[in-house]
Structures are given as structure tokens and as C-alpha cells.
Amino acid sequence: MRPFRTAAIALSLLTLAGQTALAETVLRRGNYAEPETLDPHTATGLPEAQIFYDMYEGLMVRGPDGVAKPGLAESWTVSEDGKTYTFRLRNGLKWSDGSPIAAGDVVFSLRRVVNPAETQARNANYIWPIRNAKQITEGKLPPEELGVSAPDDHTVVIELERPTAYLLKVLSYPMLATLPTKQMQAAGNGFFSAGKLVSSGPYMLDRYVPQGYVKLVRNPHHRDAAKASIDAVYFHPTEDQDTELKRYRAGELDTTYTLPAAQIDWVRENLPDHLRVNPQLGTYYYAPNLTKSPWKDDKRIMQALSMAIDRGPITEKLTRGGELPAHAYVPPGVPDYTPQAPAWADWPMDKRIAEAKKLLAAAGYPEGEGLEVELLFNTKELERRTAVGLAAMWQQRLGVKTVLTNQEWKVFLDTRRTKNFPGLSRQGYIGAYDDANVFLEWYRSDIGPENPAGYANPEFDALLDRAAAEPDAEVRRDLLQQAERMLIEDYAAIPVYTYASKRLVNPKIKGWVDNPLDVHPTLYLSVE
Fold first, then answer.
1. Contact between residue 357 and residue 367 where contact means Cβ atoms under 8 Å apart
2. Which of 47, 54, 76, 526 gets the most CB atoms within 10 Å of its CB?
3. Could you give the dihedral angle defined by the CA atoms of residues 151, 157, 160 and 166, in that order, rounded to the nearest 10 degrees?
4. pTM, two decimal places
5. Burial class (CB in 10 A: 0-12, 13-18, 19+), 507
6. What's the pLDDT score for residue 512?
């Protein structure tokens, strides 16, 4: 095993002019892919979220365990009918440029989230429980009609369409962060760049080198600046997992984003104190482009493909990091909810294959003849190997030919959103909060281009609407389970496995808490 260099964790003593000083403490984090953007209101990926946990804050934030806690707000009250939340901001809040944070900035930011002209409303659905939010997203009302107001500089009032028990969890999502009104208006389109970006989190942007790194440094104006023991944090995009592992072993990284599946056994044997494996609240799946034929024409094709997948070998031989085979779309771990799998999930494989062949023949593809499936995925070895595994199963069991198409992260995201692919696209979602609604709402017909499959089912939408308005928790749960069953029976998704985070963390790093949302803010970390 190659020895670890300690240069990445800069704790050496420097002697300057006879004086001894402690060098700055630096943390270097592997971060999967180049950030799509540094704008929290338009970003949708986990690589961006990891950066935003350090840079930005909203009324609520997430602690070291991923649980929502007070952020810019120090307290709040809820009206008797559960439809009005009144937040009190902390005293003395400042932006990273030293200017004061006011309640009007919260109003400005939430209006921006739902304004399709500003953000294409990519994250607007998270706050649809707020009065008029959905209508604003759809262009039916101006952003000023959003049910958020600031009676004074320290008070924010949020009015809801209906009681929403999970509102505080939603408000801790980093893509809903508060941004500075005056500075954004002054900088215009150039705001999200080093030297102009002003933020509220414990760390602020120092430098961004495309395809190199994002460097954050301590924000001296943050209320917890004195508690931050790490001076600077680098986020390094490394889509090639083998390269990321090599960089870690060379001491160039202190944490990895993930691990190559083929190296997990080696890591368990050689670096057991560095390995962190933990279940995640998320599902890996493929979605068909239901705006194109043959997927929009006959769901029996998707059912046949799903039935022919043996998910066990994928998690046992390919991913190998604690993932679990999945037939349901909503992952286990959501409180008081039972994920909904298809009736055939427990059938023996030979019975499933026989039924899948009948379905394909009935759909006009006997023995798979004439059917070609394109699998779109982002450039990453595990994604390629998974796609190869699916293709092999479909070829061997159904006679279906498969074309594999990989794209770099940003291009891949745009292709999925625009539905500019003919077959199935690789999808993965880690819940923004622990409620079934956050998974299911992405399949609403009115969600826009973020709908993974272009799925449009009025009955499905109606079930989610009824669940949103239902005050009884048990009835609400049953409605959400009905919606998931409908989604699964329409084969708008082919679940493959539930996620598990697997990465290396240098044992010198303290304060790292494994959690289902995979949240690890640098503020709570230190170096031994």
C-alpha cells in the first residue's frame, strides 16, 4: 500500500522570522462532477448541494446529522390552523461582505425560486405548499403574489395553501437558500462568480477553476465563524472513480465522493478505518421517454424490461457498497410509509422471463425482434457497468438489442430535461426530505421538464393533490401509496436499487456523521 502524504491536511508548523505559526487547516473533498451552476435556485444535483451546505443558508439549515435546525431564523410560531408560520430572524445577521441580512432578502429569494423567468422554476415545486406558489410557477400570477411577506427587517411570514407538517424540513433544503437582494440586482448575471458572489453560510467563495476545483474560505461575518476550525475547503470534481481513489491514496484528497465498486473489497481489507458505508434515502432507476414511441404507446414493453432484470446480481457484483435491490420507487426509510412494489416482484426469475416474453410478443416484438433500447447515462464507470449489465440481461433473456450512450454531467442533465433522447435515461434521486411526497411529486404532469419521464396521468396528479390537502396522517399515507402503485403499474420508472453512500474519509477528520440524506457540512468538521 502506498503511504499517505499529509500535505492535503495542512497542519504543519511554519517558522517565519523566528516566529512559529500554525498553517491554515485545509480540507480537500472529492465531489463527483463539475458543478452545473453555483446558483442554488437553478441547481438540481448532489455535487452542487454539497457545496451549498457550506456557502448558503435559508430560514432553516441542516446539522451534521442532516436534521433540519434553525438557520437564519432563531425561532418561529405556527397559527392554530397550521397555515401561517411566523419566523423571527437572528439579530446581527450579515452577508459575507459585512452588510446586514434582512427579512426582505428571504422574500426576494423565495419569489425568485418560483419565478419561471428567473430560474425556470427548477426547484419551485418544493415550496408549492406556500400560497400561490404553484400558480406563479405556471405563469398565472406574478411573483409578488407569493404568500411570503416581511412586516419588518426581522420577521418573515409564510402563508400556506394548507397545513404542511414537513415545511421546516423543506426550508432546510440548500436549493432554497436566501440570496442578497441588492448585491444580486447590482451584479446581474455575473453575481455567481468569484469576487461578486455574496453569501450567508459559514464559508464563502474564494475561487472557482472550471474542471479544477471550487475553493471556499471561512466567512468572517458568519455567526459561527469562531467555531469553524477548517480555514479553507476545496471541492474537486472527479467523475472517474478510479482516478478519485488514486488521488485519495496520494494524499490529494481527504474525502472521496464515492468508490469504484471493483475496489471496495480492497478498501475493506487495506483501509478499513477510512471506509464509510451508509444507507441513503434514495433510488437509482431508469425512466423511459414517454413523449416518444414506443414507450408512450404501450406500457407492456416497459413491464417486460423491468421483469427481466435480476437486481440482486447488480447490487452484489456491480455496486457492492451496501445498495439494496429495489422494485419500488419510494425507498425504505420514509417514516410511516410502505414502498409499493409490483405484484410480480417475488416471482421466480423463470416465471418473470416467460411472462415478459408474452408481453413483448403481445406488444409486437416477438423474441425482442424489432425492438432497440437506448440507455442514456452520465460518464462514470459504475453507470456504464450497470447499463452493460441491464443490456446483457435484456439481450440474453428477451432478445432485445441495446445501445449505450454516455454524456458528460452537464450535457447529460440538459439532455434529460429536454427529453432529447429516444429511449431510457439513468435517473437517481436522494430525497430532499424524508417524506414520500418529495419522490412522487417529480412525476406530476405540471412539474415541467424536471419530470423524469414526461409522465402525464391526471389520476396520479389528483391523488397527490388529495394527499396534500389531507390533514389525517393515515389517510394521507394511503393516498400517497395509491399514487406510487399507479406510477409503478404505469411503468414510468424502472427501479434498480436503493442508494448507499460509500466513500473514504481520512480518520484525522472528526465530526463526520453518517446520515440518510448524506449531509456533511464543513462547519461541523475538524482535523485531529
1. yes
2. 54
3. 170
4. 0.87
5. exposed
6. 97
Residues 340, 477: contact at Cβ < 8 Å? Answer: no
Written as one letter, the residue type at 208 is: Y
Q: Which amino acid is at 241?
A: Q
Tell me, what amino acid is at 514?
Answer: D
Give the residue-averaged pLDDT of 145-156: 98
* CB-CB contact of 427 with 499 (8 Å): no
* DSSP characters over 326-350: -SSSSPTTSTT------GGGGS-HH
**Which residues, listed in sequence order, are joined to residue 503 by a DSSP beta bridge?**
276
Percentage of the chain beyond pLDDT 70 is: 96
The three grid cell numbers given for residue 435, joined into one nine-digit string = 417524506
Q: What are the CA-CA distances from residue 162 to residues 147, 158, 466, 469 (Å)?
A: 12, 11, 11, 6
Question: In the chain, what are the helix, strand and coil shares in percent, each to the nearest 5?
Answer: 35, 20, 40
pLDDT digits 0-9 by tens, 68-100: 999 999 999 999 999 999 999 999 999 999 999
Quickly tell me which residue has 427579512 as its cell. Answer: 103
By the 10 Å C-beta count (0-12 exposed, 13-18 middle, 19+ buried), 173 is classed as buried
Q: Identify whether the C-beta of residue 281 lies closer than 8 Å to the C-beta of residue 516.
A: yes
Alpha helices in 326-457 (DSSP H): 349-362, 381-398, 409-418, 436-440
CA distance 13 to 6: 13
Distance CA 36, CA 233 (A): 19
- Distances in Å between the Cα of 317 and the Cα atoms of 129, 352, 519 are 42, 21, 27
* Residue corresponding to grid cell 427529453: 419
Please write the tens of the pLDDT for every residue from 386-404: 999 999 999 999 999 999 9
Under DSSP, the state recorded for 379 is S
Contact 52, 177 (CB under 8 A): yes
Q: Output the nine-digit C-alpha cell for 473.
A: 396522517
